[in-house]
Structures are given as structure tokens and as C-alpha cells.
């Protein structure tokens, strides 16, 4: 194998070399352009995905808050029903006197009160 390789320098070699350089530069520019386009596309997809995830977290928090408020509403509704039943029952004088005697330990003169917890009116 020869050690020294000599390249000819003529117009054809020079033209082919410049065409190869132009093609290489053109590919490089095209690849750079495609790279920037891909980066732009990725950034354009990241922002909506970030907003979507954040909105989902907010939605989950609001759903949790809604469930808590619904439970509190149900509890207040039951309490309101209980108090309205008690108010309806207290309109009856006999029930009102029994309730005052049992709940607040009111008694008539000479009367002794014995409380039994299970028998207290609610």
C-alpha cells in the first residue's frame, strides 16, 4: 500500500467538493430548523399539559370541598329536623312540662326527681 496519496486538484474535484460542502451546510441548516421546530412543538405541548394538570388538581380540591360541604349540609338538615320536631312537641303543654322536669330538673313542691338517662326525652 502506498503511503503517500496525492489528490488531484482540478476544476471537477473543486466543484464536487464545493457541492458536498453546500449539501452538508444545507442539511445542517435543515436539521437545525427541524430541531427548533421540535423544541417549539414540545414547549407548545408542555404549557397546556401543565395547565391541564393544575386545573385537575383544582377540580379535585373543589370536589373534596363540595363533599365536605354536602356532609355538613346533611348534618345540619338532620339537626334542623330534630329541632323542628322538638319545637312541635314542645307546643303540647304535657310534653313541655315532662321535658322541663326531665331535662332541667324542675319539680313541683314536695316532689322528688329520679333521673333515668334512657328515659330522657330527646
TrEMBL record:
Q: Does the keyword Transmembrane apply?
A: yes
Instruction: Return the InterPro entries for the record.
Output: DivIC, FtsL/DivIC
- Secreted as UniProt keyword: no
Q: Which UniProt keywords apply?
A: Coiled coil, Membrane, Transmembrane, Transmembrane helix
Bilayer-crossing regions: 33-53
Coiled-coil region? 59-93
- Can you tell which superkingdom this protein's organism belongs to? Bacteria
Output the GO biological process annotations, alphabetical, semicolon-separated.
Answer: cell division
The protein in question is named Septum formation initiator family protein
Origin species, per record, is Streptococcus danieliae
Amino acid at each position: 500500500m502506498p503511503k503517500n496519496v496525492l489528490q488531484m486538484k482540478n476544476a471537477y474535484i473543486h466543484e464536487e467538493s464545493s457541492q458536498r460542502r453546500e449539501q452538508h451546510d444545507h442539511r445542517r441548516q435543515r436539521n437545525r430548523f427541524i430541531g427548533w421546530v421540535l423544541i417549539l412543538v414540545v414547549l407548545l405541548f408542555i404549557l397546556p399539559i401543565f395547565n391541564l394538570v393544575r386545573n385537575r388538581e383544582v377540580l379535585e380540591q373543589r370536589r373534596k370541598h363540595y363533599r365536605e360541604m354536602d356532609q355538613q349540609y346533611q348534618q345540619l338538615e338532620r339537626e334542623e329536623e330534630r329541632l323542628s320536631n322538638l319545637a312541635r312537641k314542645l307546643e303540647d303543654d304535657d310534653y313541655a312540662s315532662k321535658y322541663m322536669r326531665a331535662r332541667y330538673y324542675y319539680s313541683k313542691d314536695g316532689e322528688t326527681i329520679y333521673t333515668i338517662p334512657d328515659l330522657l326525652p330527646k
